[in-house]
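Q: A reviewer asked whether we had any structural model of the full assembly, not just the individual parts. We don't, so I'm hoping you can provide one. Inputs are below.
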Amino acid sequence: MEEKSNKVVGTSPRRKDAKAKVMGKAKYTADIYESGMLVGKILRSEKAYAYIRNIDTSKAEALPGVEAIISYKDVPKIPYALQAHQFSLDHAGQEDHLIFTDKARFVGDEIGAVIAIDDLTAKKALSLIEVEYEELEPSLTIEAALASKGPWIHEGREHNILSDLWGYEDGDVDKAFTESAHVFEGTYDTGYQQHCHLENHVSYAYMDSEDRIVIVSSTQVPHVARRIVGQALGIPWGRIRVIKPYVGGGFGNKADVRLEPIVAAMTMAVGGRPVILDFSREECMIGTANRHAMRIKIKSGVSEDGKLKVLQGEVLSNAGGYASHGHSPTLVAAGKFVNMYETEAVKVENRTIYTNLPIAGAMRGYGTPQGVYALESHVEDIVTALGLDPITFRKDNFIKENFVNPANGMITHSNGVRECMDRGRELIDWDRKKELYKNQAGPKRRGLGMACFSYETGIYPIAKELGGARIVMNQDGSVQLMCGATEIGQGADTVLAQIAAEVLGIPFDMVHMISTQDTDITPFDFGAYASRQTYVTGLAVKRAANEVKEKILRFAADEIVDLPVYMLDLQDANIVNKHNGQVMAPLDKVALASFYQVDRAEPTTSDVINNAPVNAYSYGATFTEVEVNMRTGKIEILEIFNVHDSGKIINRQLAEGQVEGGMAQAIGQALSEELLMHPTTGKTLNNNLLDYKLPTIMDVPDLGVDFIETYEPTGPMGNKGLGEPPTMSPAPAIRNAVLDATGVAFNRIPMNPQRVFERLKQEGLL
Amino acid sequence: MNRMQINFTLNGKDIHLEIEPGETLLEIIRKRLGEIGTKKGCGVGECGACTVLVEGRPVDSCIYLGIWVNGNDVRTVEGLAAKDGNLSEMQEAYIEDGAVQCGFCTPGFLMSATAMKENGRKYTREEVKRALSGNFCRCTGYKKIIEATEKGLKS
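A: Here is a predicted structure for the entire assembly that you could use as a starting point for your response.
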């Protein structure tokens, strides 16, 4: 099904913010200055697990330039959840965090803060504070946390289990295993990954003349931040205003509300004077969130004729010291067991465990990269053992259109995964190279691998999905578009403006985008997460644009042109006869009249907060060719292609940018990136960009991208989520290519040279 | 410590300042002169977001002392467009080729790429990558940055 041909949607106009960004004019949080701004610095625990018995600030207080020192003694004891989950969704009881704590749960936990006239004074004051710890035995692995005799990291969470709820079972698992000709088992481990957005976390706050707290912050979720600050401080939410300027990347990390409650407490401590909290890179890498390290166990049963009959899984996830998004990414990882392969029976158990390590939260993909890594590695192990063709097996067993997810009732309306596989196979020249790389024995061995994924767009039906859009038509017929969706680099402003232009029938340049979100002004919206904005907020923009169009056409019919409204349309900024395209009046003339006509002035606006009780599954596949150096353990990616079914592509250039960036992050996850913690102290060892092996321009191979454009009937323009999907299938595809090249199955990522070298040695392949 | 006088040009404008010996060029540009286009991503010379040109050479301004630019010509992202507002060829190429996402690394990349363009040399793809290897980007996977830089070098 195709809608009428588009004029703006499906093209790649220049992004709305590109000029400001190449000129250095785009203002990010730290670029805005308030007169008399003070500097806040956080006092962090040096111990992984300890009660704070005393804190002596006398020396620090005596330092000239110190304006205030606050600690756990001075802030409300109201536990709150750090994550962006909607209010009603806090069902897991994840309110486990205080602004400052007297029980440190990881090295870097926040116990107090200094507010001083400048950076240097604040740092010096921190070094003068004496903290008395009563140390406890830290749990630095999931196993240690489960075996601990207490005290539990969070009171009431016995054996440090944050949650083991929402396991899932469908069909007769035992019967399916009994009937299976082959049974396979495997365990797959993923590491801690850090977002490393180029702009560190930063917020500043002050109190206005009405004692309202104004927070300017690098956040993905301004409306959520307002709610959480209100909760944490126990003050009415309407007394808080959150403003989001340009954001230098988030990838889920800025969907936690970490700095905002702290910086609000800071300004309150100094009588409302402005205070900035600007994290260093080192601080950002221990004091924000990470991708959950997971251990996923899978048992599967396959019939004689190659049907995947049954999947049984256990997902164990390391939450670190606080819940943040807690159990939800675990559930998303587990969700792969039901929405990728259609089986007769499925059973999955989930456990999310607290440890005394830095917090894990939302990171692009939200559990899916871990789940897909495990499942797609396991599927490869099956086809390898049975000598089956990996593409054929996946195509035969993958879910099809009209599949109803048994766990949540959501229907797959569009599914181009098989076409993605066909395209990937062709792009990488799979069949020829597969033949070529048989029976290699040299010091450098090549192999091919592939993997698929599925992913939800937004979070309905787990929770509500609201998108906000407001359109005001100007006297010249151009419009201002204001959305609750946040631009954090992904291009949301541009694609939402494209949708507005398309629906309105005006050129892209006539849509003026308000990029800043301000909770006092901006329509309510939950913000940037779950690849939702072009889909959920896009529906709001479409509705708002339709309303404006309807109103201006009605005004034109009533006041300006000699045709009834049902015969009119807006095209290329003209009011036209919709049946023959004849121009009846230019839009600017009608818009002007709508403001100044003496008898009837009726400026055209719309203000929509749209409830979107829908979800759409995105699909795709990665194909890659690697070369493994058998002497050094170094894996080189020679070619890699991601092919995506994200429905209709609104802007090809921006979509490619999303895919390429996501692939690079996944390549990092597969080969080099891992936050390392000391095995006995729990201290993070590589919280800087030198030692944390973030891919440089030299490390990322040429990235191949293509799209299979299905039409998703629930999306505003036939589109579905794209932001996160690129991170999902590269890691298992690389792992499977290494298996193809070497015969060795790596069930733990990252596959860095040391790990590969040691394993090859162990296997006698060196 | 004794404060020191420095004179330099910033994007063609004469600057006379009295600074602390420990002040970095980044602090001077951002805090004293209010030019916020140059970004701080790490503060220790790892990420390249703060790259500016000193005498045409890219440096990490976060670990470059202010006193070292005495008598020098310093350029930042604000100095790339012409006086009439026309963007440079490199800026145009970055927009056209989709090399900009969150934009936080963009000023640094543009300065490194502009230094390459201005020295007039020919660069192979590998040399382009090598010359930009001091700049991190987390959004783009670098592909469109490489393509845009090559286009900017050619035009």
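A: Points you may want to mention in the reply: Residues 129 and 143 of chain B are 10 Å apart (CA to CA). The first helix of chain B runs from residue 25 to 32.
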